[in-house]
Amino acid sequence: MNKKRILSGITATGKLTLANYIGAIRNIVKFQDEYESYVFIADLHALTLPIDPNKLKENKKNIYALFIACGIDLNKTTLFFQSDVIEHGLMNWLITVNTTIGELSRMTQFKDKSQKIRTSNGMETIPTGLLMYPTLMVGDILLYDADLVPVGADQKQHVELTRNIAQRLNNKFKTDFKIPKPYIPEVGSRIMSLSDPTKKMSKSDINEKASIYLLDNPEVAYKKIMKAVTDSEGKIYLSDTKPGIKNLLSIYSSLENISLQETEERFKTKNYGELKNEVGLSVKKFLTKIQKKYDEVINKVDLYASCGAKKAQILANKNLMKLMKALGLKNESE
Ligand code: AMP
Ligand code: TRP
Fold it and tell me: Are 68 and 95 within one domain?
């Protein structure tokens, strides 16, 4: 029987954080043994917000190498840059014309991001790319006809939109796109900021102390954990009223591969200083390990990425042609 396929991507904006590892990369790595696995760096999605071209170039390469450092095995996973497979651009248009402005403007991510930008100029300052972000993502998923899409909780809505559009295309044009399922990890799908645990840890946070970056000096990362904002109660247990403590327990549980309940049990008689020290050491050990591997592969990224793109393009082209034929853009025999 053919293996089921996963597809996932990560946007090439900013430096990757521990939240990206726990919420996304870790799961992608787990799946590669069981699934046929396609993973890409979403550099086209990165263009939806203002970018510095030199930074983008550097980020792309770092992210590629970090994926390998975090356990992506190129013998098992096809790892590539989205913009190397030009089929993504055309697919985006074919999806766009099958979507409504209502659908796109209801997306939570669009509402949040556009509200932040909105000034007295209103719509004039909201980039169209923010609205179209999901159509590009729907296209990504359908190009590889994925069964499963591992993402963090904030991206679930975009995968749900993909399901609706796949169904729509199948009904209207008799295509046979799979209806993809999102995969959201139970623990760690929302790792919080170290400075304000009611906010998500985000690679776009301007406060560098709020996030652990995967390329942080491990010693610096340890210190960030030691300074993480918690609460004044002094007791360790899991509760939504204690987001700082819950966050530290989640980080530990994910990096040490033990359940959240077991982690709570382990720390329940300890104090906050002891908890932070152990979480800090766990983070330090993890960063030291992945950075060693990162140094080994960073100079080989261009070569690896071009091999990945060639392989990805074969499948992307096949699915793009399928839709082009169904829409009447190409003859069945072409
Ligand atoms: P982003 O950093 O927003 O481009 O997201 C890249 C991937 O990491 C997506 O699958 C996100 O859902 C996931 N992710 C981002 N921030 C977090 C977070 N704070 N906790 C868990 N997962 C996250
Ligand atoms: N939008 C995703 C993010 O959070 C990245 C992404 C782009 C993606 N295309 C995708 C994820 C397709 C899964 C499948 O960064």
Answer: yes
Report if residue 195 sits inside a domain: no
Could you list the residue range(s) of the whole structural domain that residue 226 is in?
A: 218-294
The DSSP letter of residue 274 is H
- The CB of 146 under 6 Å from ligand 2? The reply is no
Query: Cα 32 vs. chain centroid, distance in angstroms?
Result: 16
- What is the number of the ligand 1 atom nearest to the C-alpha of 150? 10
Same domain for 10 and 139, yes or no, is yes
Q: Are residues 174 and 318 in the same domain?
A: yes
The model's pTM: 0.91
Each of the 334 residues of the chain gets a pLDDT tens digit; together they read 678 999 999 988 888 999 999 988 988 899 999 999 999 999 999 999 889 999 999 999 999 999 999 999 999 999 999 999 999 999 999 999 999 999 999 999 998 888 887 766 677 888 899 999 999 999 999 999 999 998 878 899 999 999 999 999 999 999 999 999 999 877 666 899 999 999 999 888 889 999 999 999 999 999 999 999 999 999 999 999 999 999 999 999 999 999 999 999 999 999 999 999 999 999 999 999 999 999 999 999 999 999 999 999 999 999 999 999 999 999 888 7
How many whole angstroms separate alpha carbon 186 and alpha carbon 165?
26
Question: Token digits for 99?
Answer: 């979507």
Binding-site residue ranges for ATP: 11-13, 152-154, 191, 200-204
Question: Is residue 60 exposed (0-12), middle (13-18) or buried (19+ Cβ within 10 Å)?
Answer: buried
Element of type H or E holding 78? strand 77-81
Asked whether residue 63 falls in the same domain as residue 171, the answer is: yes
Same structural domain for residues 288 and 305?
Answer: no
What's the structural domain count of the chain? 2
Both structure tokens of 176? 């046979």
Ligand 1 atom with the shortest distance to the CA of 13: 4
> Is the beta carbon of 43 within 6 A of some atom in ligand 2?
no
42 lines ligand 2 (CB under 6 A): yes
- The residue assigned the tokens 């080994």 is 296
Q: In this structure, are 222 and 289 located in the same domain?
A: yes
